[in-house]
Amino acid sequence: MNKSIVIIGAGLSGLYLGYLLKKAGFTIKILEANDRIGGRIFTKKTHDTSVELGATWLWKYNKDLMDLCQELKLTLFEQDMDGEALFEATAAHTVQRFKLPAHQEISYRIAGGTVALLEQLTAHFSEDELLLNATVNTIKEQDNTIEVITAHSTFIADSVVSTIPPQLLVHSIDFPVALDTELVHVANNCHTWMKDSIKFAVVYNTPFWEKKGLSGTGFSHVGPFTEIYDHSDFTDKRFALMGFLNGNLATETKAQRELLVKTQLLKFFGDDGENYLSYEEKVWSQAPLTTTATDTYLTPHANNGHLIFQKAYLNGKFIVAGSETSPSYGGYMEGAIYRGHQIALQLKRQFL
Ligand SMILES: Cc1cc2nc3c(=O)[nH]c(=O)nc-3n(C[C@H](O)[C@H](O)[C@H](O)COP(=O)(O)OP(=O)(O)OC[C@H]3O[C@@H](n4cnc5c(N)ncnc54)[C@H](O)[C@@H]3O)c2cc1C
Question: Where would I find the Amine oxidase domain in this sequence (predicted)?
Answer without folding.
Answer: 97-344
